[in-house]
Amino acid sequence: MAYSIWRCMLNRSATRWHLYRSLSLYNSSHGFNAEEIKNKLAPFTGGSVTLVKGENGIAELCIDNPSRMNAFTGTMMMELEERISDLENWQEGKGLIVYGAKNTFCSGSDLNAVKAISNPKDGILMCMLMQNTLTRLQRLPLISVALVQGKALGGGAELCTACDFRLMTEDSEIRFVHKLMGLVPGWGGATRLIQLVGSRNALKLLSSTLRVHPQYALNIGLADDILSSGTDGPLEKTQTWIASYTKGAAEVNRAVKKVITSGREKLIEDSLRSEKDIFGTVWGGPANMQALEKGTKHN
Ligand SMILES: CC[C@H](C(=O)O)C(=O)SCCNC(=O)CCNC(=O)[C@H](O)C(C)(C)COP(=O)(O)OP(=O)(O)OC[C@H]1O[C@@H](n2cnc3c(N)ncnc32)[C@H](O)[C@@H]1OP(=O)(O)O
């Protein structure tokens, strides 16, 4: 009895933590009106963002607008948000692969939409919409990998930083072209780039608009691996790569990602408390009991 009350309390605090994590950054108290910017973006149609959830707990999210190098039209920005909501509710999920159709990653915002909302007010609203969505992507309790083939430009470079890992094919490049457009990143890419490569390297990439090729990306910590060509295609190789990080029960994989998200985003004391709460959700759970019963060794 005492055990189940204790367990229930732990689960409730974990649920509270999950709700907190999935909250968006901006709401009406920040002057954000999602409907207003969605109405402006809606006329910019074309392309799609598709999601396939595998029975093995690995989902594949495809940015699909090849005639514009997978640029995000207005409707695709909204579809991305819907797909992230879907993933937030997928309790069986363990991992996510984000990739672009037809062997290229993404060339950022659709420039037709950008021109139509080039006034400061709409620009900030679009920025808040995309920051909300990409922050929710980064906070998913799924281990996420961006498969970068071809080009990841502008907002496309920012999108790949919202994943936990980046795999690049040999001929690919990540390029923060914002300065050439008279801009700085606005989808959260600068903040995440600093966390990934440090402020000096981030400054180099944004100020030079350098084409970041795979070996350099690997050296500075932007990429996690280079996929060489072979019999398996890049998507198959990414599926194999992610499998070594997503073995075992979904609840344990999800707890692993949650402790990392908590550690990354919270102050040390809050993070330690969250770690305790998340620990409580798996301690004595089925995967833990099975390992104890089997007498699992790690040699
Ligand atoms: C915060 C994010 C930021 C923002 O929203 O503020 C942005 O993301 S701004 C957008 C940044 N991206 C760009 O500026 C990309 C501009 N395009 C290019 O540099 C090139 O098109 C490139 C390098 C992506 C591909 O070059 P390539 O020679 O391989 O092909 P094409 O140039 O012939 O491109 C094929 C076709 O795609 C259209 N395209 C490419 N990117 C976009 C885009 N972002 N928006 C709209 N359309 C795009 C390009 O115009 C071609 O169309 P076509 O009708 O054949 O001329």
What does this structure look like?
The longest helix is centred in the first third of the chain and has 21 residues. With 299 residues, the chain is an alpha/beta fold. The strands form two sheets. The chain has a six-stranded mixed β-sheet, with helices on both faces. A two-stranded parallel ribbon has the order 5-7. The protein has one domain: 2-enoyl-CoA Hydratase, Chain A, domain 1 (Alpha-Beta Complex). The protein is 52% helix and 13% strand. Bound molecules: ligand LZKTLF4L. Ligand LZKTLF4L binds next to helix 4 and strand 5. Belongs to the enoyl-CoA hydratase/isomerase family. Its main location: cytoplasm. Its EC number is 4.1.1.94. Keywords: Cytoplasm, Lyase. GO terms for molecular function: methyl/ethyl malonyl-CoA decarboxylase activity.
Mean pLDDT: 92
* CATH architectural type: Alpha-Beta Complex
Percent of residues in beta strands? 5-15%
Anisotropy-based shape: globular
Distance between the termini: 38 Å
The total count of strands amounts to 8
Helix content: 40-55%
- Which ions, cofactors or small ligands are bound in this entry? ligand LZKTLF4L
Instruction: Supply the number of structural domains.
Output: 1
Largest sheet report: 6 strands, mixed
Q: Report the radius of gyration as a whole number of Å.
A: 20 Å
Report the structural category. Answer: alpha/beta
- The secondary-structure element order is HHEEHEHHEEHEEHHEHHHH
Enzyme class: lyase
Main location: cytoplasm
Keywords: Cytoplasm, Lyase
Protein name: Ethylmalonyl-CoA decarboxylase
